[in-house]
Amino acid sequence: PGHPTRNLGEEIKESMEFWLEEDSAEFLPTGAGSRPGELLPVATGTTAETVFLRMPHEPSAPWAVGVQEMDSGEFVLYEMTFSDWLLAYLKGDDVMAGASAPERPFFEPLS
């Protein structure tokens, strides 16, 4: 659903399967999944980063965004909502675990 050439649900499912594998799971501070406290992979960067939403531990707890940078193995948790994180990224703030944003547009038109 959503687009004729890409299925976000399938991409998230495949990413979840990758992060549940034993070799990949060792890079995360907590398990991948959609239960309280777990990390849900929602996006990838252009240079080996994965962006996660940390599920709140309880309904009133805040969400957070985590970034796993695979080249260095570093995981950084940003205590902010996804919308605040995305705005910070678009403004050029360092919210990608130290990885720099590309100098050129990092997307390709889907049409």
Helix-strand blueprint:
Elements: H1 8-20, H2 22-25, E1 39-44, E2 49-54, E3 64-69, E4 74-78, H3 82-90
Antiparallel strand pairs: 1-2, 2-3, 3-4
Question: What can you see in these coordinates?
Answer:
By secondary structure, the chain is an alpha+beta fold. Helices cover 23% and strands 21% of the residues. The chain has three helices and four strands. Strands 1-2-3-4 form a four-stranded antiparallel beta sheet. A hairpin with a 4-residue loop joins strand 3 and strand 4 (74-78). The radius of gyration is 14 Å and the shape is globular. The model has no long low-confidence stretch (mean pLDDT 83).
Short description:
With 111 residues, the protein is α+β, with helices and mostly antiparallel strands.
Query: Counting H and I runs of at least 4 residues, what is the number of helices?
Result: 3
Summing up helix and strand content along with how strands pair, one would put the structural category as: alpha+beta
Integer average pLDDT: 83
Task: Give me the count of strands.
Answer: 4
